[in-house]
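Hey all, quick one. A colleague (J.T.) asked me to put the heme C job into the tracker so the inputs and the structure tokens live in one place instead of scattered across chat threads. No bug as far as I know, just bookkeeping. Sequence used:
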Amino acid sequence: MRKMTYASLVTLSVLVAGWIAGGCSSTPETDAERQARWTAGNLTSFETENGIGPITEDTQLAAADPSRAASGQDIFIKKCATCHYLDHKKTGPMLRDVTKRRSAQYVLNQILNPEQMGKMHPDGRKLVAQYAQFMTIQGITRENAEDLLNFLRSEAGKPALPIEQQPGFGTPPPPAGQ
Ligand code: HEC
């Protein structure tokens, strides 16, 4: 009887150990687990480099497409120029060369997940402190974000323009506190 119990215990431990090991390697992290990890400040090296949000290591990005840049410019004028110009600081930083200093995934995560980027990503937190403002936008789809990325990539490295030639020049900044 005692022998049996010992044997069953060993079998059980082996099964549990196997289940844990198997579970750790094959069960994907749930959204809740990921949020808890970000809240605790435990970012992976991928997330430190590429931001936190819907764009993960596994995401395949569409190839750079100049025809989407024009659509990106329209969206930029409607949704971003309230706070950003390419070559002049406004409510937020200038964005001409943002695709040179940040990875494509980082830019997409910033556009698709600005609140958590500003609260939980070390670089986002620095910028929020510097600009004393969170980036807020609504109604941006993944497709819009990729168009914007194409626009920003197509503008990177070009000479700076005078303020009155900035895309969306004259768009009023958001009211204070928003
Ligand atoms: C309400 C103002 C506001 C709007 C609208 C806004 N942003 Fe921002 N953005 C900010 C602020 C403030 C920061 C810096 C703080 C932060 O990173 O959250 C920022 C940061 C960024 C960054 C990171 C820059 C860097 O150097 O890392 C990118 C990229 C960006 N914005 C792109 C966009 C795009 C594209 C849009 C339009 C879809 C947009 N933003 C709309 C205010 C705004």
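Adding what we noticed when we looked at it: Residues 79-80, 82-84, 91-93, 95, 98, 102, 107, 110-111, 114, 117-118, 124, 127-128, 131, 133-137, 140, 148, 174 surround heme C (CB under 6 Å). The chain has two domains: 1-30, 43-165.
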